[in-house]
Structure formats: C-alpha cells, structure tokens
Amino acid sequence: MEKLNFVKNGVLRLPPGFRFHPTDEELVVQYLKRKAFSHPLPASIIPEVDVCKSDPWDLPGDLEQERYFFSTKEAKYPNGNRSNRATGTGYWKATGIDKQIVSSKGNQVVGMKKTLVFYRGKPPHGSRTDWIMHEYRLVNTSSQSPVEIPMENWVLCRIFLKKRASKNEEENCGGELVARKATRVMRSNNATTSTTSNRPVFYDFMRKENTERERERADLNLALSSSSSGSSGITEVSSNNNQEEESSDDHQEEDSSSCNTISTTTFPYFRRKQNSI
After folding, report:
1. Whole-angstrom Cα distance, residue 242 to residue 247?
2. DSSP alpha helices (H): ranges in 132-204?
C-alpha cells in the first residue's frame, strides 16, 4: 500500500473536505510514539520543523488554522534539562501545570502536554501575545512513576493563534451577562420572598391572654375610681341639701315670727275685742 503524503514543501495539503483534528491521545500514541520509535506513521501529515528557530507567524502553514510540527528539544545549557525556547524576536514561556495524557482503554499515562505562550522581547520584560503552543512529549510507562524518554528528544507541537472576540461580540456577551445577572437576582429575590411567605407564623396566645387580663384590670381600676368619685359627689350633694333644708327652716321660723309681730302691730283692736268677749 502506497504511503499517503499530504505535506508539500513543509505545508499540509489535504484534499477538499478533509480536516485534521486528532485528539491528544491520537497525537501521542499514533504519531509521536511512532516517530520516536521510527515506526511508520498513519500518514505523512506532520512536517519536521524546528519551531524555536522561527517566530510563530513565520512557520509554514495557514496562520488561521492549527498547525502541527515534529520538533526536537534543544538543551539551554550543556549539563541542564531546560530547553532553549528563544526565537528571533521573542521566546516561548511555559504557563500552568503539565497535563497527563491518559489512554482511553487502560487508563494509562502515555504522554504529557505542556502549554506555552509566546512573548515578544527578552525575558523577563517581554510582552505577551496571543500565540499558544501545546507541546506533547512521551513518558516511560514501564515503571510505576512516569519518566520522560530521552530518546532523540522528539516532541510534537501544536501552534495556533488565540482568537479574540470582536467589539460587537464583546458587547453582545456583556449584554447577555447583564441579562443573566438580572435573571439570577430576580430568581433569588423570588426565592427569598417565597421562603418568607412560606415560613410558619407562631402566635403567642399566652401573651394575648396576659394583655387581655391587663386590660380587664385597667377597666376595673377605672370603674373603682369613678365609683369613689361619684360617692363623694353624692355625700356633698346630701350635705348641701341638709344645709339648704336647715336654712329654709330658719327662714320659715323667721317668717312666722315676723308674721306674728305684724299681726300684733297691725290688728291691735281685734285682739282687745276678743279679750273683752
């Protein structure tokens, strides 16, 4: 069977309708592992390029698509394990924690993935760009703890430009976020009102009885005070009546005495005649 070759002049050329979207496991097991052990590849689709010799925008392939390259790691120092990732105008800097690539069948670690970001300038004062690289490497699965294989230092690199949202998309996303926040606030308010409305109401009947008793006691005190004031008023009225009666009797006696004097003075002859008779 003739081997398929889709790389021409270092550029991937696929027939119309074909796309190359492998998974992390397929990149490590089917391509990188075969390349490291000099086994035949499924297809000649990934070119060999030293990615650190050129800037990411100068590498072969379509800049708007993901590009895959086989590359070798160059040691930064003769006796060190650090890789030299400096390019012509910048450098690649690792970010985050390396991710384990696990096989789907035996849940076995078959490789590691490192994420790197391209910076313009010289470290540590470089300016960050939107170029991202995923670097895949093999690990030794013979021992319990995964150890990197130093065989020829082959790695597989996936390089792409991180897309930023346009202003209209950002505004739309911002409006959607505001609407989502508003709906969440409304839901939370409704939930709080429903919980408050559904809460049981407890009445203190003993307190109600105590208040009623206090009211009854207050009414009794008012009645007693009013009755005492009324009795004092009656005694005063009776005393006044007695005084008036005594005064009226005195007046009557005075009137009777006055009448007698008047009769004796005004009718003297009448009394003499009676005596003579």
Report:
1. 8
2. 167-198
Q: What is the mean pLDDT of the chain?
A: 74
Range of the domain at 72: 7-165
Is 206 within the bounds of a domain?
Answer: no
CB 137 within 8 A of CB 55: no
Give tens-digit pLDDT for 15-35. Answer: 777 788 999 999 999 999 999
Contacts of 1 (CB under 8 A, 6+ apart): none
Instruction: Report, as an integer, the average pLDDT of 242-262.
Output: 49
CATH of the domain at 143: 2.170.150.80
Task: Please choose, from the candidates 71, 119, 74, the residue with its C-alpha nearest in 3D space to the C-alpha of residue 93.
Answer: 119
Summarised one tens digit per residue, pLDDT across range 69-78 is: 999 887 766 6
Token pair 């949202």 in the structure block, residue: 165
Cβ 103 vs Cβ 29: under 8 Å: yes
The answer to the question of residue 184 being in a domain is no
Q: Can you say whether the dihedral through the CA atoms of 112, 117, 122, 124 is positive or negative?
A: negative
